[in-house]
Design brief:
Length: 180
């Protein structure tokens, strides 16, 4: 049985939280929160690292409710500062971007930054890193992604703008969860 399960792929904010707070724990990455909760319930993992709330945009999906109603318990909580960046595969600047991929929370946390760019369409992804993979697979010239600087750089994208989060104290609380 693997010690820890969390939302992947590598370089998501979940993975960054794991690296910072639980660096030496064996882990497995899952495609969705549903997959993480299922693995925990089926005892394929001992614990899960789950985002539960963001200090500026509220609860992360229904994760906190799922923890409470599923018979899991929170062992510990960690707060990770969230700094969002804009990256692109080919676009030279933000004015040329017509479509942006990202996780719904990252989109929500950058609304003020993008208010003057009404020409941009936002596409929701399962994670900020999944958004990068969608962007790279589609190879759209005038598209971008909201993600961490680390994820943008690890995927060889151009970094167009840093710290685009609406609140400079933006952070997400992650819960370390186990079966009760």
């Amino acid at each position: 049985m693997t010690e820890l399960g969390l939302l992947g792929p590598e370089n998501t904010y979940h993975d960054m939280a794991r690296q910072k707070f639980l660096p030496n724990v064996s882990h497995v990455l899952f495609h969705s929160f549903d997959d993480v909760f299922k693995a925990l319930k089926e005892k394929r993992i001992k614990k899960a690292l789950i985002a539960i709330k963001n200090n500026t945009s509220g609860l992360v999906g229904d994760n906190l409710e799922r923890i409470k109603t599923s018979g899991h318990r929170i062992l510990e909580q960690f707060e990770l500062p969230i700094h969002l960046c804009l990256g692109s595969f080919k676009a030279a600047n933000i004015e040329s971007i017509k479509k942006i991929y990202s996780h719904p929370m990252a989109i929500k946390e950058t609304k003020k930054f993008f208010v003057k760019y009404s020409h941009i369409t936002f596409i929701s992804s399962t994670s900020t890193v999944s958004a990068i993979h969608e962007l790279k697979n589609n190879r759209e010239k005038n598209s971008g992604v909201i993600a961490s600087k680390e994820a943008i750089e690890a995927n060889d994208l151009m970094l167009l703008s840093e710290n685009i989060e609406d609140n400079s104290t933006n952070s997400t609380t992650f819960a370390l969860v186990e079966n009760a």
